Amino acid sequence: MTSTQPVATPASASLPDESWPIAVNASSSPRSAQERAAILAEPGFGRYFTDHMVRAQWTQADGWRDAEVVAYAPLSLDPATNFIHYGQAIFEGLKAYRHADGSVWTFRPHANAERFQNSARRLAMAPLPIPLFLSSLEALVRIDEAWVPVAEECSLYLRPFMFSTEVGLGVRPANAYEYLLIASPAGAYFSGGIEPVSVWLSQEYVRAAPGGTGEAKCAGNYAASLVAQAQAAEHGCDQVVWLDAVERQWIEEMGGMNLYFVYGSGPTARIMTPELTGALLPGVTRASLLTLARDLGMQAEEGRISAQQWRDDCASGAITEVFACGTAAVVTPVGQARSAKGDWTIGDGQAGPITMLLREELLGIQTGEVPDRHNWLYRLA
Length: 381
Ligand SMILES: *Cc1c(COP(=O)(O)O)cnc(C)c1O
Prior knowledge:
The chain is an alpha+beta fold. Helices cover about 25% and strands about 30% of the residues. Strands 1, 2, 3, 4, 5, 6, 7, 8 and 18 form a nine-stranded mixed β-sheet that branches. The chain starts with about 20 loop residues before the first strand and ends with a strand.
């Protein structure tokens, strides 16, 4: 049942699927079963890490080498390490879920592996071979399998990342990179039931511009977003919504998640997500929901919507629901929107039925409760 299904881009049709050798140097001081159980009882998000990590190095001369599992430990860096100054740093995020029979699976990892390569190319970094990406996930989850939570909607969050390691202050693509994979147990994102978020439409700041790095999952995009996120909080909102950089009117994304707009209800409901212009991050969740919505008999399309249209369509009742989607929070309803021009409520401000249906369908596939009819699952342990 292991998937070799290409996803995301047609270029993936001839993916090599052989594994990449990864040496294993197990930690001499893993946490005890009791310590682990205490952490897994209330993991939160991104606060605790498993006993191991994977690392590999690239140099101009030797390419990718020395892939190994080692004890999770701090890094030691020369103060002139290139990425600290100039930001050649990219990452990915995916989740491993434990199924009812104890096996551990992740979701469409080829798509993340390809996006990681695309991000690397945009930042003039050395792309990580797809077999190394996939084998690193398998190696880490195998050795730290006991860290994959059993509880419902809990998962092991996997964080692959890469940065330049060349020492020196010259501004140019580095001649050395380090790849690392760490893992962090994650609790149910919504512990007290699904809470809709409120959003602030930022007129002042943009996340990405045409020709910029919006499509790449790079650290700098997040650094650039923080001041707008703080402004959203000042306006009493949970999250920021990004508008396009040129006209400042077309809706792009919400924080670090893609957005969907739901028109109508019941069997004639239609969902629309902003099209990929080069400034949006092409989410794996976003792509999967286009397919799942069609499976469920809905119309699902990519399009565009302005801030004004969003507001008008909520007033007229044409838009019934809005939700955000991404690996970390899966599907998150948006209940309220606010901009410099005013506030509006989406539907009745609560999580709507289409949002919940799509959420259950996607999460059901990921957790093994709904048949994996598109071969999206990939077994890790
Ligand atoms: C990672 C990310 C997403 C969601 O992508 P998924 O592959 O669905 O997790 C959306 N927007 C931004 C800006 C992101 O960084």
